[in-house]
Amino acid sequence: MRALTILLALCWTAPAWAVVERVEVTYQGVFAGGVSFGDVGSYEKFAGRLHYAIDPDDPANAAVVDLAQAPRDADGMVRFAGDFLLLRPTDPARANRRLLYEVGNRGRIGMLSFFNEADSSSDPQSLADAGNGFLFAQGYTLLWSAWNWDVLEADGRLQIELPLAEGIEGWLSAEITVKQREASQPVAWGNSRGYPALDLDQTDAKLSVRDRQGDARREIPRTQWRFARDEGGEPVADATHIWLQGGFAPGLLYEVVYRSRPVVVGLGLAAIRDALSHFRRAGGIEHALIFGISQSGRVISHIVWQGFHVDKAGHAVFDGALIHVGGAGKGSFNHRFAQTTRHGSPHEDHQYPADFFPFTTVDQRDPITGAEGSVLQRARALGAVPKLIFTNTGGEYWTRSASLLHTDVTGTRDIALADEARLYVFAGAQHGSWLVPHRAWFENCINPLDHRPPMRALLLALDAWTTRGETPPPSAYPRIATGELGRLAEWRVTFPAIPGLRLPVVNLRPPRLQHGPRWAEGITDTVPPDFGPVFETRVSLPDADGIARGGIRLPAAAVPLGTYTGWNLRQPRFGAGNQIDRWVGSFLPFARDDATREAAGDPRASLTARYADRTAYESAVAAAADALVARRLLLDADVPAIVARAAAFYDRVLAHDPSDASCEYLAP
User: How buried is residue 521: exposed, middle or buried, by Cβ count under 10 Å (0-12/13-18/19+)?
Assistant: First the structure.
């Protein structure tokens, strides 16, 4: 009886046209032991399954590729189900009446560890999972739901079951690259589920290898590999793995082309739409916001581009979006044999459609193909343009084509953002806020900048923009016209000559992929696709310290203890040693004093030349933080912790022995 009561409470006001036809609640309970979060009070947690019913003949679903081939029930509907998680104030009267939906990244939830700086968990329950309580003290109703079919069931990741397209078989390609020699590898990337081969012995399947993306493929004889996984040194038949005689070598690009059956992957985008539509209209919610990190940010851009943000009744399912570190990309989210985790980087996965025209929020024309349009073109036609805040770091200019969001595709001129969009770039930061006290497979220590505090301010700015019409802070990003954005060659001659430091020789310049004559329908006929001319991307040019110019300088970068970059090279012993990593940046500390600097031949000013003592350094950090508060890019409440962390880092950098090559001093 309790479960039935909860189900009715969650969906009793849902309109008759809702396509979440049933909410199955498998868990309900108090969250974080019933602790009170400020004036909002306690939270309750719901978890379970959402049961969807999609009408293939409804125009709202026309963009879902291969939906016509999905199996239908007796009433003509396509049905499937996926996990959901909901955290909401126990007392609805104390909620802020905002629904904040996060697009899960590969089945995981991230906004509690991101905004709340909480422990990372896919099943938040404890007080530690609440972190600093920021989102809860604001009164948001928080929602997650599964959307991507290829998430492996591990660590409590949200799962969804999407149907196969009936009567279709076809070719797909899977790229494989490793950092150490491996006997076998899955045909999927990123701890995901791959398409199984139709036939383990298919003689027309091909495996090739090449050093770099633009190189010719060298086919490996079929007798030297098989569909199998390694178990104890022996190959065991497995339709989702490749076993290679002699093993896969580090850094090389292997590619298998084989036949399988496609999943109707685009239903995942419809599931996000319909979950949002259902809970937004289930009572008590006045506005809905959507948030995504990396892959999940690209999902949001893709949703808006294809119009999946408008439900079958013509209502927008969210009012504003916070799209974080998605670069200028969309993704492999809605085409035949889509692989949602795949995305291009300087070295890997160029054949998957993650960076494709259009990129900008205003109309432009591609002079190579003649294509015209914008990411918001469909939204304007539907009369539902959401407010968009894009946030990137310096890293996305190296690895995620971020400049294409605000330049033309030739990289020669700036393009303004639409009135409904803002862009903020954290100069010198890397893709994620990770404090890692070792190098792993990277050449330099990993960038410790933490860009989460200003993201809290920007979430509240988006909220105020969408709910009260308050103008957000002006965009802050590097531009060609100001000399802050330029070619890699310009960057290389401008970057300081730090002794012993290797510099990048490449950043991501994604090719115009040629998938074949039916690509407009989402069908790939050319497998793998042919590479056309590249889109020209640009990077943020450095200052005398090597820190990117333009955008927003976090206090630690405005008052630096070293050079912070958005790039980090791979160590050669892990293969592809001239390539930069997908996500990780570098930290290169300044010399402690002038004598040490001169002995090393370092052109950058020393720490003692910059800061008289710890107190002077603290004061400078506090002033930099206060300046961001004045620009509404940081919350005043976050300043003390920022200053305290910076001061503690100052102590560790000053005490660090430059002859010690470890990175342990980065962590407290």
Answer: exposed
Q: Report pLDDT for 190.
A: 82
- Please write down the HEC assignment for all residues of 120-182: CCCCCCCCHHHCCCHHHHHCCEEEEECCCCCECCCCCCCCEECCECCCCCEEEEEEECCCCCE
DSSP 8-state symbol, 365 = E
Q: What are phi and psi of 176, to 5 degrees?
A: -130, 130
Token code pair at residue 520: 């407009």
Indicate the domain borders of the chain. Answer: 1-163+264-285, 170-260, 334-385+396-509+536-668
Token duo for residue 498:
């730090």
Around Cβ 314, how many Cβ atoms within 10 Å?
A: 10
Classified as helix, coil or strand, 651 is helix
Tell me what pLDDT residue 18 has: 55
Q: How many helices (H) and strands (E) does the chain have?
A: 14, 25
Tens-digit pLDDT profile for residues 319-352? 999 999 999 999 999 999 999 999 999 999 999 9
Q: What is the pLDDT of residue 13?
A: 41
The tokens for 219 are 């086919």
Which pairing describes strands 141-145 and 98-103: parallel, antiparallel, or unpaired? parallel
- Tokens 């007392």 correspond to what residue? 91
Cis, peptide link before residue 533, omega less than 30° from 0? no
User: Mean of the pLDDT values across residues 78-101?
Assistant: 98
- Buried b / exposed e over 627-646, threshold 16 CB at 10 Å, is ebbeebbbeeebbeebbebb
C-alpha–C-alpha distance, residues 141 and 599, integer Å: 57
CA angle at 226 for the pair 225 and 229, rounded to the nearest 5°: 110
Q: How far apart are CA 205 and CA 200, in angstroms?
A: 10
Query: Could you tell me if 89 and 39 are in contact, meaning their C-beta atoms sit under 8 angstroms apart?
Result: no
Q: What is the pLDDT of residue 131?
A: 97
Q: Three-state SS across 54-79?
A: ECCCCHHHCCCCCHHHCCCCCCCCEE
| 307-310 CB contacts, 8 Å cutoff, 24+ apart | 307/63, 307/378, 307/379, 307/381, 307/382, 308/63, 308/269, 308/270, 308/272, 308/273, 309/273, 309/379, 309/384, 309/386, 310/60, 310/273, 310/379, 310/382, 310/384
Nearest to 143 by CA among 330, 12, 353, 292: 292
Quick one: which of 83, 127, 90 has its CA closest to 108? 83
Model pLDDT, residue 507: 97
411, 643 Cβ separation under 8 angstroms: no
SS3 587: strand
Which residues are within 8 A (CB) of 661 and not within 5 positions of it... i.e. 6 or more apart?
none
Specify the DSSP element, H or E, that contains 640. helix 639-655
Q: Distance between CA atoms of 246 and 220, rounded to whole angstroms?
A: 12
On whether the CB atoms of residues 548 and 394 are closer than 8 A, the answer is yes
> Of all helices (H) and strands (E), which one includes residue 101?
strand 98-103
DSSP-derived secondary structure letter, 638:
G
- Both tokens assigned to 79: 């049905």
- Give the mean pLDDT of the chain: 95
* In the predicted structure, residue 230 carries a pLDDT above the cut 80: yes
Question: Is the N-terminal amide bond of 528 cis, ω within 30° of 0?
Answer: yes
